[in-house]
From TrEMBL:
<dbReference type="Pfam" id="PF02798">
    <property type="entry name" value="GST_N"/>
</dbReference>
<dbReference type="Pfam" id="PF13410">
    <property type="entry name" value="GST_C_2"/>
</dbReference>
<dbReference type="GO" id="GO:0016740">
    <property type="term" value="F:transferase activity"/>
</dbReference>
<protein>
    <submittedName>
        <fullName>Glutathione S-transferase</fullName>
    </submittedName>
</protein>
<feature type="domain" description="GST N-terminal">
    <location>
        <begin position="1"/>
        <end position="79"/>
    </location>
</feature>
<keyword id="KW-0808">Transferase</keyword>
<dbReference type="InterPro" id="IPR036249">
    <property type="entry name" value="Thioredoxin-like_sf"/>
</dbReference>
<dbReference type="InterPro" id="IPR036282">
    <property type="entry name" value="Glutathione-S-Trfase_C_sf"/>
</dbReference>
<dbReference type="InterPro" id="IPR010987">
    <property type="entry name" value="Glutathione-S-Trfase_C-like"/>
</dbReference>
<feature type="domain" description="GST C-terminal">
    <location>
        <begin position="82"/>
        <end position="208"/>
    </location>
</feature>
<dbReference type="InterPro" id="IPR004045">
    <property type="entry name" value="Glutathione_S-Trfase_N"/>
</dbReference>
<dbReference type="InterPro" id="IPR040079">
    <property type="entry name" value="Glutathione_S-Trfase"/>
</dbReference>
Amino acid sequence: MQLYYARVLNPRKACAVAKYLNSPVDYVHVDLAAGAHQTPAFRAMNPNAKVPVLVDGDLNLWESTAIMCHLARKAGSDLWPRDDRQVEVLRWLSWDAAEFLPHAGALYFEHIIKAHFLGVPPDAAEVEKATEGFHRFAKVLDAHLDGRRYLVGDTLSVADFAVGITLPYADAAKLPLQPYSHIRRWHARLEELDAWREPFPAVEAVAA
């Protein structure tokens, strides 16, 4: 299997799960700044021209959530549960995509991507809007995590890898986490995982 990635949010999910599972993947770095994701060869794998992409035999699988689930299922891992918890995991994956990540990701974009890759200042109006949305949904997440080790009971799942993906960048992205003790406790538990702290390969093969 080949996992095409760049050092940004969504590929981080897939790389973290692959490393956690010790999946037999070859990591292929895609140089976004050079437009490697826009080439005909890459678009043949993912017509959306985005990373990550997992190539598993004849399967070209895009979307980080699907890749995480595929890797977990292939490894026979409970990260993608096969009992009633699967619906709960799916709920949190859907909630993250629709509610939490759009705001946390906007702060990541405004404070990190703009500053370090585009060389432009953050948009104050966008930051205010994203911060307001972040607080709204962080309250939901924090309340849910009260008394829980992970998002779905006491067992780590792909939902944790997805919903927590902006938290390693909390300081640089200026995520207002201070009021949310349960989120901070939960993320500290994720930080105990080597695959979470350092999900990307040390040596990068570059996509041609």
